[in-house]
């Protein structure tokens, strides 16, 4: 578990798969290690890379009898991201998810504060950013654009 | 076992909607009105493809013939796909893409919320993941429909036309045949009857805010529960399946 828990997320390298709650568990079964992971979004392309990195990392430590299992239940949520990992995300320039699973249908979520200048006066450019997990905002104060890790 | 076969077909119905719609939306890549919308539509496409992969993986296990998600996605003949006719409709001008998505996302929100209660734990867990994604699709799409409906004379005309033209494909969304009735009574499939009125009420709310008219009821297209498709399906499959059929053993 220690060996793989600090594998960085391929997209946001300042946080690890354990920070994100993607790594769910490691069990030793009779003659192999079963590593359970859960996808953030159903089609997250980084999951394949994470799976490969888990195998690679364990192989480097001489462990080759591994199986990686992808589970959908319980459904991953941004609630699982550690608080101090959210701060690292903000310092990296991505506005972290604000509160629990807040995707309500009719726009009642408030805009995230700017990760650069901390102003609250921000506007939504698009609900869909460069990756499945992020949306795109602009800060009206400092005029910088930034991405937001969506509440999920 | 009959109920396993039924469950297999039910999974295909759900998976095929996501698969074919994912394909249609990916056609917009580099062709959307502007770059942020290109990202948005392809993001939605990606969510669809991920959903179909999860469902086809499960379907392959249920079938028990060793077929992978890819085998099921790319090797079936046209009459063994069970997606609703609505998802086959072309992207058209942007209004058609939006009208199609509005009808579907409103339906999917209620459908998958109910599916979370399914006695089949795999379907329930896929549903739990999917519902979160659908909410973003619906917010995005309804914002656009409102903006275009209550926009210029041209955007309103185009938006209304798309709403009107695609209306005849919406009835099919609520069809339940014997297979689904059987699965419903064993607590696995969703009861579509109560969903219809919720769907209609929410649709009316969006259209009203968009200053658009709800179409009059008319003949509803049907046939996909039996694998009968519109004339678009053959063309979609010839593109979608081309690579796998030309190079059957290809791997990345």
Account of the 3D structure:
The complex is a heterodimer of chains A (152) and B (252). Chain A is α/β, with parallel strands linked by helices and 152 residues long. Chain A has two domains: 2-76, 2-Layer Sandwich (GMP Synthetase, Chain A, domain 3); 81-149, no CATH class. Chain A is 19% helix and 24% strand. Chain A has three helices and seven strands, in the order H-E-E-H-E-H-E-E-E-E. Chain A has helices at 2-5, 46-60, 83-92, and strands spanning 23-29, 32-37, 66-70, 94-95, 122-126, 134-139, 145-149. In chain A, strands 4-7-6-5 form a four-stranded mixed beta sheet. In chain A, strands 1-2-3 form a three-stranded mixed beta sheet, covered by helices on one side. The two termini of chain A are 26 Å apart. The model of chain A has no long low-confidence stretch (mean pLDDT 88). By secondary structure, chain B is mainly α. Chain B has one domain: Ferritin, core subunit, four-helix bundle (Ferritin). Chain B is built from ten helices and no strands. The chains are: A alpha/beta (152), B mainly alpha (252).
